[in-house]
Specification:
Oligomer: homodimer
Strand order of the largest sheet of chain A: 4-3-5-6-7-8
Helix content of chain A: 55-70%
Number of strands of chain A: 8
Low-confidence stretches of chain A: none
Strand content of chain A: 5-15%
Number of helices of chain A: 24
Distance between the termini of chain A: 79 Å
């Protein structure tokens, strides 16, 4: 199954099918030797292939005439070097800055674009175009006059069979009391049967001759050779940004898979080692003339369910693919492109995560905003801008939230030592002492906000003599906040209000001792507890 | 004093001196009508003038031949529109994202660059060059053969007098028992005396003729006219970025001044109204052929100490400048450029905030890093890149800090209900229950870090049955963190460890109820207090 998949993803990337197979030999072996995951299998995957396709279109629009293969090779080389360097610099933690909603939005939108990009193959529209956004849809419709009816029949038949061969077939087999494992194996064979059926149909009826059904055609037989002549350093600058995004997205996809598989067996995956292994795998892809690779789910899951528990599985797979390339390439000749496209479409539609979207929407509107913006940007402006927009928006929304922290005026619950928000509890407040709690660490973006809120509170309570700031939720105070607090203390003192702190955590207090704030505080004090403060100031 | 200052800043911007005066008429009146600060006085200021100078140099290097004045006018127009739109969109809060260390580093480095850029006038090196980085220094040294000895004498004499006329003169006068106020007024008159002396020296000895001392020369008499012919929309795209940065920096400088002055009299300044007022002031500058303006300290302080308490002061100042333009421009003819440069240098050196740098260094190394990177980037690559680098670095360091929160394993203090870090206190821990506290809200960038730390803790304690996560410092959990926690709960359950939460704040608990996390938690529980958890799980 890996063979038609690799060919299909090469086709998706706008490369000859054999490139997909080349990308599944040496990189697999290299990853098997260096990777920290025992189950991950690398090769071309759908989303990075779409990015390769859009980069090829861009470079050719910018006047690069070296051809698609060189762009693919250079992307593999540059992104391999980037991954390797990031791994050596231990930058694996950077992937933490891509939030879950951004990943959901990004992958779902990319899946739609990928499915749309394969539509022309299923419809048999024999033209090429370089659009990697939703703009592909009206373009395809405009060319619907070119639909090849025989191809549509084969393509949609393949889609129907692939869908049926999955869950419905498994259910049927189980209801017929077939053994669980046997049923699973039969379902796994489904796609292969569909592909073989497709190829046989074309061959028997010579549909490629009589009805112009697009086929894979002849694939050069033989192993990829070590070939540096395909390096072209004149386009490096143009490829830096696409390569960075391919690296990033490939790494995130790969790590998600590796972690999901590893956690089932209580193993750990080391992000920096993964970066190094993926980097070397991509560099090895480039020197054998192949395109960027990463760890993909469908391929890795095969390894996992086959019980592979060392990098050996990857190496055995690589050998099988090499043997196919040596002896069996003529067998792929009649493979209809429509069937390959159908396998992509059926596989990719599962990546549209509607459940994740609904859960995010229910949980939090800011997270939904990141998701929706990522999704729409990918759909409208393409993959690269989409992931960048998603990261920028999610970080901005986080900054925005922490810049306007929750600030509560609190009062004492009965005669207890507990203090709660006056809005939610029936508590005792004091006429000349305001007790206020801020639920966030103080840093440059929120210190002026706190200052403004406190000054408003002071203006509203004319008889005020003391403000007690409860610092129990403050884990850090940066120097901008110290500056703002120091100014605030002076301003309040000028207007006859003394500022106090309470419940300052030990590390925060130690930090404050290195500034002039505590000297400036006098006659204000630092109280151990809010209770202490109230006892001294109000009783 | 505002008149030579405005001329000097126009010269710094690479514009004819009268532009500085034009910028001090209509904008002052407009700001006086719309601004929320009673003391702020707008006009050309040193830092924005330096940015105008570097933009003029860039556009001319990019082949714009329309001349410096048009660039100045367009910058005023674009940045005016930007400020106005930001004010109407209520984006004043964005200035909070420029941290105090970034401002210190930026202004100090800009002050050095400004002083260096004026060096050639003081040295009398009569060549023009367009460098706004430290590269100006070797360039000036290379041309030191062109030094005009008479000009150096005048320039350094002016610097010496200006320095002496400040604090030393005030001390002397006070020691001679001169009245405080009188001493202050005499010191304020110092710069004017120096300027008049300079002009008289040149005129009397005809130094401009005999020794080629550079003078201001003739300034066209008459008021600025309403003139849209200087708008050139062909360079708008090139000016967008510089105009944005001029707007940002101008706004920050203006707001800092306005707040500092207002707080002394217990008044509030409204950021969004300030944005609108500054925007209109800049648009009014552009239609009268002037350069960008903003609120500067030295000019505003004059208003303040003169007791100005309404926008009227600005309007009166504007009328005085208009009268000077109508009748007194010949008086400025013999003003030596070296003296104007000397006034800039003496004024600007005060902006180098060595004390702030030392305090930041002592307080926090991450903040110092933002400061140093901003400072060095401004010095080496210029003002625009510097402020951008500063903002990016300070936000990145904040994200980095929150992405690796403090996580403490805690134990019980004696038989109390208090739980403290096992590293700092002698506390009771439990063999089958791990109690852990995370001191930060959970969001996408730190949830995987927490997950990793918890899994390591579990791996180290083989007999573990329960983990209790104390959430007292968690003010928010975003959907990425919910996803990570849900996965973690399932992973821990698979390895026989039950996950519990304790001390979850009410708003956080309400938020979690909208996700599936609480259902997934079972048999784990949400405990009101850590004490409750220990009582149920360990006793």
């Amino acid at each position: 199954m890996l063979i038609p998949q690799a060919m299909a993803y090469a086709m998706l990337a706008g490369l000859p099918p054999e490139i997909g197979l080349y990308a599944s030999i040496l990189p697999l072996i290299v990853y098997g030797l260096f990777g920290s995951s025992n189950f991950l299998s690398v090769g071309p995957v759908a989303i990075t292939s779409l990015m390769v396709a859009s980069t090829i279109a861009e470079t050719s629009a910018c006047g690069f005439t070296g051809g698609a293969i060189i762009v693919g090779v250079m992307l593999a080389l540059i992104s391999g070097l980037m991954l390797l360097l990031m791994g050596l610099a231990r930058l694996g933690f950077l992937m933490n800055f891509i939030s879950h909603p951004v990943i959901i939005g990004f992958i779902s939108a990319a899946a739609i674009l990928i499915a749309l990009s394969q539509l022309k193959h299923v419809l048999g529209i024999a033209i090429t175009y370089d659009i990697s956004t939703l703009g592909i849809l009206p373009y395809t419709i405009a060319n619907s006059g070119l639909i090849n009816v025989v191809t549509v029949t084969i393509g949609s038949g393949a889609i129907a069979l692939l869908v049926l061969a999955n869950k419905p077939l498994e259910k049927l087999l189980l209801s017929l009391r077939v053994n669980n494992n046997v049923a699973a194996i039969i379902c796994k064979l489904g796609p292969i049967v569909v592909i073989v059926l497709g190829a046989l149909t074309v061959k028997i009826f010579a549909l490629d001759q009589t009805h112009s059904v697009a086929i894979t055609g002849s694939i050069p037989s033989g192993l990829p050779i070590f070939d540096l002549s395909q390096f072209d350093f004149s386009i490096v600058k143009q490829l830096l940004m696409p390569a960075l995004i391919i690296s990033l997205v490939g790494f995130v996809e790969s790590m998600s898979e590796a972690k999901a598989l590893a956690s089932k067996r209580r193993q750990k995956v080391e992000p920096n080692q993964e970066l190094v292994a993926l980097g070397l795998a991509n560099i090895s892809a480039s020197v054998t003339g192949a395109c960027p690779v990463t760890g993909g789910f469908s391929r890795s899951a095969v390894n996992y369910s086959a019980g592979a528990n060392s990098g050996l599985a990857s190496i055995i797979t690589a050998i099988f693919i090499a043997i196919s390339l040596l002896f069996f390439t003529p067998w792929f000749y009649y493979l209809p492109k429509a069937v390959l496209a159908a396998t992509i479409i059926v596989a990719i539609v599962n990546l549209i995560d509607v459940k994740g979207m609904i859960e995010t929407w229910r949980y939090n509107k800011a997270d939904s905003a990141s998701l929706i913006i990522t999704f729409l940007t990918v759909i409208a402006f393409g993959i690269e801008l989409g992931i960048v927009a998603g990261i920028v928006v999610s970080i901005s929304l986080y900054l925005l939230r922490t810049s306007m922290p929750h600030i509560a005026i609190v009062g004492r619950v009965d005669a207890s030592e507990h203090f709660r928000n006056v809005k939610h509890y029936d508590v005792t407040v004091y006429r000349d002492t305001l007790i206020i709690r801020v639920d966030e660490s103080l840093y440059f973006a929120n210190s002026r906000y706190l200052e403004d809120r406190l000054l408003i509170a002071v203006a509203e309570q004319k008889q005020l003599k003391n403000i007690v700031l409860i610092c129990s939720a403050i884990n850090f105070i940066d120097s901008s906040a110290v500056e703002a607090l120091t100014n605030l203390i002076a301003e309040l003192r000028d207007s006859g209000v003394t500022f106090h702190l309470a419940e300052v955590k030990v590390p925060v207090l130690r930090q404050l001792q290195r500034s002039e704030l505590l000297q400036q505080l006098a006659p204000g004090k630092v109280f151990m507890s809010t209770h202490d403060a109230v006892q001294e100031l109000c009783e």
